[in-house]
Amino acid sequence: MPAQAGAGSIERLAPAFTVQSLEGETLRLDVLRARGPVVLDFWATWCRPCVAAIPELEQTARDLGPRGLTVVGVSVDGPRNHAKVRPFVAKLGISYPVTLDDDGALQEKYQVRSIPTTVLIAPGGAIVKVVQGYRPGESQTLRAAIQALLPAAADSTAADSAAADTARAH
Question: Hey, which end of the chain has fewer CB within 10 Å, N or C?
């Protein structure tokens, strides 16, 4: 699957999956999509660009989660590094669910060839954006793509801001 940083829909349906989070929660793509868009973020504890990207994605998850976004971290650490994943998650303050891709099945299904790789899945199931690698500030492009998939009526921040501007003008 090619990286299409600014592209629209890649016109490929996201492969179904059922995984367990580190906390033992069952995560099924169809159930997650029922809430809204889903972001799969493939990373490893030893990957410096991954470590740099995670805080920006965490902020996006905190900001847009209440509007329906679900983020799932997918650790691609091999069995030798599994013991490092839970402390890594705690150290970075990751609040969204994280799963271990023990057998590489998710990487294979989503054709992940490098990390970090972030996949945005629309509520209807289409993969609408894939970002490979990390560049500072690039999360704003991903965030805009996510917001385009969220219901506009739920965005009270813009309405509140406009109301405040109107109130100041009078």
Answer: C
